[in-house]
Amino acid sequence: MNTPLPPMKYASVLVIRCFKKVEHFADWITGAAGPVFVFLCWVLIGSGGLLFFDVVARDLSYLGVFLLSPILSLVPLNMYGQYYLVTHVPPGYPAPKASGKEDKDIKWTIAMPWSYWSGERWGFIKGERPLTGGYEGSDGAAAGGEANSRVRRCRKCDGPKPERTHHCSVCKRCVLMMDHHCPWINGCVGLYNQRHFVLFMAWLSIGCWTVCGLGYRHFINTFSYRSEWKAYTPKIGFTLIYVLCIAIGVAVPVLMSWHLYMVSKGETSIESHDNAYLEKKAQQEGLIYLNPYDLGRRRNLELFFNVGPGGYSMYTLLFPLVIPPSSNGWTFTRRPLPTTPAKPPGSLHAPELAEGLGLLNATTHGGHAEDGLSGYVMGDDGSLTDDDEGGGGWMD
Ligand SMILES: [Zn+2]
Ligand SMILES: [Zn+2]
Fold first, then answer.
1. Locate the Palmitoyltransferase DHHC domain: which residues (predicted)?
2. Catalytic machinery residues
3. Is 188 helix (H, G, I), strand (E, B) or coil?
4. With a threshold of 0.90, does the pTM exceed it?
């Protein structure tokens, strides 16, 4: 028989329910507004390109066109190409959709060598690096497989949830190596499309700077009634696009730098919250926190773009090509244990920390580690942030 709840308890239950409703509504509106955002983005980058060629490029000399030809060709190619890819390549899922219609484009999750978008089709051949985890420097697959013999289950969709996977409440499914849900692409940024996401931001930034740099004189002209105006575009149109280019040319590079900074640290947007928290917590314990996926700045960036030793050519960054990620999404290359000992740690005050982290030494048992690895804690599998990273990604 149900006993009536005390008033305070009842109020708090009510508040939590309200929050849940608001949260669900925010997720719904993010999903519903997605196509509008994508349409808006196409209108903006489309008109930006058209106006540039109509207003600015028509005044360039033959020599100017020749000297600027790499920019005039590569920027539009990559800006439109990468945006098309980031909106069409699914982020990658650990399992098929539980119910409803399966994506038509699921084939994208496997890079197809015969597709016109694939690097192989254009002569970019991958080096020798297995598409699995393992410890950096080790032979790969064996060590990685061992670390991931048990795969958790998602509490929301009941599907498998490999390491670094999170459940998106907008997409209503689990996403491999999820970074965030982005309304501007109407989907999640994850394992398979994050490369396109970062490269799109890079080429969009270069595009905006090109318009700002080369279109400055035309922008000034739009304020003068007497100035000559040969373009089809009305002056006011160019004024608006130019101002937008300044704003986007400042905001997007900041976002891109932030993403590249996280990539260089071997973490996703979601993991960066976790790692910052765990680092602080470990510090309080006199321990040094290690991100298991941090293989050093250069290597992290190489693995993210899948270039460099064992990956594809650096030139693949210059073209809108589908380059498969360096990981299969189920196992990831992990950093080796440090060989230099850290300071001997004090006793642990927070046992809950030890639960979320794989302790690399014997400190939990009160002993001093004698293997020279004392004082380090390594993140386990990102189990701190359980799921739910949707809705909030309005900024990027
Ligand atoms: Zn899930
Ligand atoms: Zn999503």
1. 152-273
2. 182
3. strand
4. no
